[in-house]
Design brief:
Layout (H helix, E strand, L loop, with lengths): L3 H15 L6 E4 L6 H6 L4 E7 L2 E6 L4 E5 L5 E6 L10 E6 L3 E6 L3 E5 L1 H6 L17 H8 L9 H4 L11 H11 L12 H20 L7 H9 L4 H4 L19 E5 L2 E5 L9
Antiparallel strand pairs: 1-6, 2-3, 3-4, 4-8, 5-7, 6-7, 9-10
Amino acid sequence: MPEGPEIRKAADKIEQAVKARITSEVFFAFEHLKPYEAELTGQIVRQVETRGKALLIHFDNGLSIYSHNQLYGIWMVRRAHSYPATKRQLRLAIHNSKKSALLYSASDIDVLRPGQILTHPFLSKLGPDVLSPELRPAHVLALLTDKQHHRRQFTTLYLDQHFLAGIGNYLRSEILYVAGIHPRLRPMDCRDDQLEALAEASIAIPYQSYRYNGITNDLDLANQLHAQGQRRSQYRHWVFSRANYPCRVCETPIVKDFASSRRFYYCPVCQPPRA
């Protein structure tokens, strides 16, 4: 499933293609959304917003298209009314005179009025977006020490979109590694300095991933490994998908484990099981 940085990258491309332009046609694959096609055609796109892994396209008539890619959804931006050769099912299309923004394979799509955004079953329960410019380490630290979170294991807490929106499997592993915290610990098990480091990493790592196309590893090291001919999958992360490879800091083999059938990775030396 795409995580917050990937959704924001997609939103940037969509926004570049459709923002401030008049729609010439809007298409929905789902019958219950068909009535909105006429309402959204001839409208101007005001903003393309992300909230964690969800995306909102706001129009000047007050309507917004909500979408969540889930596992298989993918956005494509093409020349106007130009479609790729694919077996995927087109679910949503926004056309203007220059470009088309096309959403394939996603099933979680809706059209919302302003009041409905506030009460939407998913959006209304989201925690702060990790890519929000307003989010600060102090905000994350307050969440970590809040009574509703401080007894929860990080393996679970860092996938909970009600806690922080936009974090998934790879960001969870990378954030905890950079902070030096074992995934099986809880906030209450950690020292103040560890929680402060975790709060910093919870913002810095998603932003780096967004800024540098998914690279969460040390950037200088990633560039060095790239120059040596390593594939992107080999230099992209600190620990994620690197089971049995040596830790980039201490050379201990990286461990792969599971929590609720979701994989995570860590270094048993750099992330000791006791705080």
